[in-house]
Amino acid sequence: MNISDTEIAWSILQKAGYSRTHELPEADVVLLVTCSIREKAEQTIWNRLKHLTALKKRCQKHKPLLKIGVLGCMAERLKTKLLEQEKLVDVLAGPDAYRDLPRLLSLGYRGQRASNVLLSLEETYADVMPVHQTPEGHSAFVSIMRGCDNMCSYCIVPFTRGRERSRPLSSILEEVRMLSDQGVKEVTLLGQNVNSYRDFSEQHFICSEGSTQLSRGFKTVYRTKQGGLLFSDLLDKVSQIDPDMRIRFTSPHPKDFPDEVLQLIQERRNICKQIHLPAQSGSSRVLHAMRRGYTREAYLDLVENIREIIPGVNLSSDFITGFCGETEEDHQETLSLVREVGYNVGFLFAYSMRKKTHAYHRLQDDVPAPVKQRRLEELISVFREEAAKVNMALIGSTQLVLVEGESKRSSEELCGRNDGNVKVVFPKTDLPIQPEKPQMVPITSGDYVLVKVNYGQHDNKIELIWLCLLSLVVNPAAGF
Ligand code: SF4
């Protein structure tokens, strides 16, 4: 989301006449796009701010107008502390106030500390075409909604990013078409809760048939929404724009996976067969305390249903260890859930309590830090074992890989990702453009290559790296 927010803020600033530099000493304005989801993310920004403030003092003579700004969730959460107590920043803009950046900066130049952290019920930046800035230019994030209504008891997002609202379908389609024209090969639809997407814009409000899209056994803390265009409508339309453009989405909530969405993922060859399914815990008791709206059993039923409709699908997840009241037994249930499901990627964190949340007001952060850490390490280790099994099963298979660029390990190797989002590393070589033609071409980022997986090894991370042999696919349809 922060990458996407940066692209939106940058588009607004570009229109106001600002140009971008990647060299800090050249900058007249330094803006940090921030995250409040965990204590550690905020600490990183505090350190960065102190470093920047020291730099500003040192540069006072030759750069008297240097301005420092904080955008996003930390601006929303810590306005007074940032602006009035610590006096570390000149400009603050919350996630719904990026349109106001040019005005805030101009106030900053007049010597005022300026801020706008108002949250909106409508702002989706639908008419702002983001300035996409992926290094290789072949993949892009497209924001489809903002905010969240779920109010999970540990989560600060509903307080920093506001209520859930979806960007109109027409504006999403326009952006995806533009990206396709620019040669982008992979789009990730982005939001806090992408699969609860509902476009209520005027022309669609009456014609919708969707009354509910909840997965079986799941419930919400808010009244079920009615009408509007649903996530399945969006996926359907987006995936038809360019059949050679891969479609991914993140982050979904398990509650919004009705069969229509799953069947569409199965049917469309360009919608990746990889689903992020944040579980957070394997214990129904802890899930209840987290206010996730499902039990372990309902989650496992959903996994079974997904695997029935999309055989071979890759699943990834998020987990929190040491949430309020989590016992050893609860922790063991989480480990057993990870073993039972077999994810190939995981985002695993020790719980850190955030002010304003339901847990902060009502629950006790009673799991000692060393216990949280130990449970996290155990979870990582089980995750790695299971991910290794999932990825090792690819040995001997042929995978369609979208090339990202040079591998970090060697300039003699390239890397990319398969449909299931597994990283693949293979030798850099020229290939015949078509099997029957002798003309050889180098493989470049944005190409699709067919890769025979013949070797797998552990990376430092949870995923595996593959060393492979391959052929170049001019028309990806041949490779699906
Ligand atoms: S679904 Fe829960 S965890 Fe995710 S953003 Fe919303 S409140 Fe936070």
TrEMBL record:
Radical SAM core domain ranges (all copies): 134-389
InterPro entries cross-referenced by the UniProt entry: Elp3/MiaA/NifB-like_rSAM (IPR006638), Methylthiotransferase (IPR005839), Methylthiotransferase_CS (IPR020612), Methylthiotransferase_N (IPR013848), Methylthiotransferase_N_sf (IPR038135), rSAM (IPR007197), rSAM_horseshoe (IPR023404), rSAM_sf (IPR058240)
GO molecular function, one term: tRNA-2-methylthio-N(6)-dimethylallyladenosine(37) synthase activity
Sequence ranges assigned to domain MTTase N-terminal in this UniProt record: 1-110
Necessary cofactors: [4Fe-4S] cluster
Pfam families registered for this protein in UniProt: Radical_SAM, TRAM, UPF0004
Enzyme class, broadest EC rank: transferase
Keywords from the UniProt entry: 4Fe-4S, Iron, Iron-sulfur, Metal-binding, S-adenosyl-L-methionine
EC number from the UniProt entry: 2.8.4.3
Record GO biological process: regulation of protein metabolic process
Cellular component GO terms, alphabetical: cytosol; mitochondrion
Keyword Isomerase on entry: no
Source domain of life: Eukaryota
Catalysed reactions, semicolon-separated: N(6)-dimethylallyladenosine(37) in tRNA + (sulfur carrier)-SH + AH2 + 2 S-adenosyl-L-methionine = 2-methylsulfanyl-N(6)-dimethylallyladenosine(37) in tRNA + (sulfur carrier)-H + 5'-deoxyadenosine + L-methionine + A + S-adenosyl-L-homocysteine + 2 H(+)
Family from the record: Belongs to the methylthiotransferase family. MiaB subfamily.
Protein name listed in UniProt: Mitochondrial tRNA methylthiotransferase CDK5RAP1
Naturally occurring in which organism (per UniProt): Cyprinus carpio carpio
